[in-house]
Amino acid sequence: MGQIVIKCPTTGKEVSTGMGADAASFASNTYSGNSVQCSACGQTHTWNKADARVKD
Ligand SMILES: [Zn+2]
User: Fold this and answer.
1) In degrees to the nearest 10, what's the CA dihedral of 22, 55, 4, 14?
2) How many domains, in total, are found in the chain?
């Protein structure tokens, strides 16, 4: 099980979305319109699957 991370548009750092997935479930799921409180900059970011990746 990996962690779904996105790249913070403000700091460029990878931040955890707090959601977990393995590569197969990430590939088969649709993720859209999710929001996350960013641990890097403190703002709330809305992210879609294209913004995200699974980090082991
Ligand atoms: Zn951020």
Assistant:
1) -170
2) 1
